[in-house]
Protein 1
Amino acid sequence: MSRLIQRFLGSGEALARLQDHAARLRRLQGTLEAALPAALAEQCRVANCKDGTLVVSTRNGATAVRLKQMLPSLLEHFARTGHVLDTIKVKVGTPEQVEWRAPPPERHISATAKQGLSAFAESLPADSPLREALERLVRRGRE
């Protein structure tokens, strides 16, 4: 399957350029990870590289500040590994979006229903899990 994808990606000129650019970004990501401490490397991703400018995305502002302090040594590290860059831009990425969920609906139990549930719970054996659940329901239920 991998060969089919490689053949497809290499078939057109635009797709071949895209494949080359993606491969270059993967190499740059590996070089970036090698240059940074492990805790910092997991917070940074190579976003793009164009016209000698490498764009690195970070998860938060603190990581961006730390990375900006390291820019001179990072440029030197990239040059030693064969990736000559003019500048490195650091950008704070957007936080991961958490899927929104509607709050659970509030459920109300009338006073009559509470009395009925309490009476039924009292008729069950003391060690019954159902009795414990019903008593908890009556305690937590809102009128």
Protein 2
Amino acid sequence: MMSFTMNDLALLAIALVIGWILGLMTSGRGRFKRLWQDEKVAHRTALKDREARLEASEARVRELERHAAPVSAGGASAATVAAAAPGRDDLSRISGISQREEVALNEAGYQRYGQIAALNAEQEATLEARLGLSPGTISRDDWRGQAVALERGEGKPGLLGRLTGAR
């Protein structure tokens, strides 16, 4: 028959307790496993929500492009397309504003050069975040100055005009 010392029994008890604790931690009924599964579900939901918002905004852009396409197909310029929409200026004439950014600006309520010219620093920061631009882009590209010039009817100088300094 085997005989155990007190040290052997103590080590056996410690091993049993550690095994019992590890078993509880890895079982399907554990609190941590439930929290982990809840986090996975929340993450999947957030991803689906983000994808749905992206798809909706892309559908909106496609719809706006589709409505603008028949006018542009006839040889009209972007300014003519903007003039066809009453109460809106062609914000894409401002250097640094693409067609997609113009759509986002219109959805945010900015449709006239005067609104861009009247932006304050807080509104600039909000727009930069909304458009995904790096901080300081609006002031660096001088959107307000360009908007003032376009509102006065001066227009944006072409490349030749910028090289020669003509306004």
Protein 3
Amino acid sequence: MDENKTITMAAIYEAQNLKKEALEIYKSVLKREPHNEEAKIAIRRLMGERKKFQGVDSEMRDFFIKMDTEIEFNEFERWLAKLWK
């Protein structure tokens, strides 16, 4: 039920790092309350975070989990530096 979805609930999800769920709640609030500035700001913030990490793929995640040599750490560090530019 969309009426039960609130800004407070979304903020709690976001604080728990459940950003996808928080984003859906913020969108639901905005649909119900088109002038809700708090929801608009939160949606922009969360959408920006999602775009920032679009370059992260499963191959790089697996590499990070399994890396154990200095060369692999350096390679991962270079990859992170490119991601944050």
